[in-house]
Amino acid sequence: MGSPDIAILGTGSYAPVNVLTNEDLSKQVDTSHEWIFTRTGICERRIAGEDETTSFMAAAAARAAMADAGVTAADIDLIIVATVTPDMPMPATACFVQNLIGAPSRAACFDINAACSGFLYALDTAWAMLGSGRYRHALVIGAEKLSSAVNWKDRTTCVLFGDGAGAVVLGPARGSAQVLGVRLYAEGSHANLLCIPGGGSRVPDPSSSPEGPQRVIAMKGREIFKIAVREMEQAAREILAEHDLMPDQISCVIPHQANLRIIHALAEYLELPRDRLFVNVERYGNTSAASIPLALDEARRSGRIKPGELTLMLAFGAGLTYGSALVRW
Ligand SMILES: CC(C)(COP(=O)(O)OP(=O)(O)OC[C@H]1O[C@@H](n2cnc3c(N)ncnc32)[C@H](O)[C@@H]1OP(=O)(O)O)[C@@H](O)C(=O)NCCC(=O)NCCS
After folding, report:
1. Class of domain 6-175
2. Total-model pTM
3. pLDDT tens digits along 82-99
């Protein structure tokens, strides 16, 4: 168990203004709105401009979360950015964010790569670090510029992903709000189902072997679909059992926004009415580590989450990583 007196004090998000619709995409690759929408539930996604780097979006989401929490950058002593699309391989995007928001030099800053589960991995890490008593206020951010990692000629992947950022401030609980639990998992035997095979130390310069692994997302979609539903169901059941809760006691479930069919299958397995789910995949597509905090912020700001209620977050992603988090507001 983590520390009982740590809570999400505020949330924020940022989405680029540039919208790419399914209709737009059908002019670039052999696809259609009908195919994309019926297979995924996605209608459009946001695409970041040149100046909208991952750190820029992360900092914008962080500022909104700090304003919501009523803290300033001077209060922040830990910044974790979950991302698979860092500004650069080195240094950590969190360091760029620190500089952009003007957080003090005593703040620890690092990135986490757990793909679409990254936000929950970062949340658990920050929760444990705050629980140690050595840090007081953390910015936990999920931010992605997936448009930079997508093969825009591959219709099987390019229709799925989008850009954006979401952030929370974690700190000493005020009132009854608190993080109740986080559970993290990974199945490394499935690591090759979803990856960016080129551009790392195995193949540092993909352009030198054009036929070899490229620095873009490669995915076996069908296999992932089935595993994703099973993994998220397991992550949900285990955290609920740990807290003696039944699925219908959760007023808002925020699943990773990858595919509406995956989300609906999950609801069916958990026997959860669909109106308990918060869904915005139709407007953003899959924004990987940004997906859950972006949805969380929208859910809170739209009044979908009220004080005292329980929210369950469920993630799966490349790795294959997966996990769950339970919070009370
Ligand atoms: C990717 C996904 C939408 C594909 O849906 P699917 O029903 O499994 O479709 P398939 O991959 O079997 O493809 C069916 C057909 O559509 C075609 N197709 C693929 N992408 C297409 C597109 N964008 N437009 C039109 N046709 C497309 C395929 O070529 C295939 O044609 P074929 O039957 O002639 O070979 C679905 O598998 C999925 O969402 N998986 C999970 C992926 C995911 O969430 N990844 C992120 C994890 S964090």
Report:
1. alpha beta
2. 0.97
3. 999 999 999 999 999 999
